[in-house]
Please model this.
Amino acid sequence: MLRTSAGGAGHGAAGSADQLVSIGTVLNQLREEFPEVTISKIRFLEAEGLVEPQRTASGYRKFGPGDVERLAQILRMQRDHYLPLKVIREHLDALARGEQVALPAPGPQRDLLDGGPWEPGLDRPTVARVGRAELLAAAEAGEDELAEWESYGLITPEADGGYDAEAVTVAKLVADLRRFGIEPRHLRAVKAAADREAGLVEQVVAPLRRHRNPQTRAHAEATAKEMAALSVRLHAALVQTALGVRLH
Model:
């Protein structure tokens, strides 16, 4: 796992020539701790001025150890504390000045927010909930974007106006896809397919959930979790197969 000190090198710290690596190498170094980080995400953070890699004469990015450490700090603060980029920049600038920085309490678990192995929240604690501001910060989105996601049924607030961990995951993924030109209206078919898959799972476990035996009801929850995980894996495999056919 990639671990770096809280202080680390300053913004855009340079390494010696033999320490400089390409953006692809940086991606591989970060992915052990941040499985869903992408080259687009790294470029986005660069565009926001949070990291400044060196450039070769031909324009290729080259990252030093300090850049990789800084990226890990940024991703960790997003994942664990829901901090918006402006606040992250202020924290990093304070660290560079040698100041002690107090971060807010960690948010929901990593796999709920940063694309780790997904499992339905059948046995998750109810404390894994956030308010509207926290969801917007986690997804780096604005009010208009969230309103659009809600209008298409991609995000649904709870009765008290809060959001569960899955809503945060959806918001971050929808925001990431938008950088590739995928708009919420394009995701209606994805939402419809997910609803149908959930319906299939519910058909299997509904009779078990109504059973008087507590052990049978517990088995229903375990069955739903296993079926949902298998459904997600099947969906991913089918998408990869379809892309493989179309790209070759």
Notes: The chain is about 55% helix and 5% strand. Residues 3-10, 107-127 have pLDDT under 50 and may be disordered. Residues 110-247 form one domain. The chain has two domains: 17-96, 110-247.
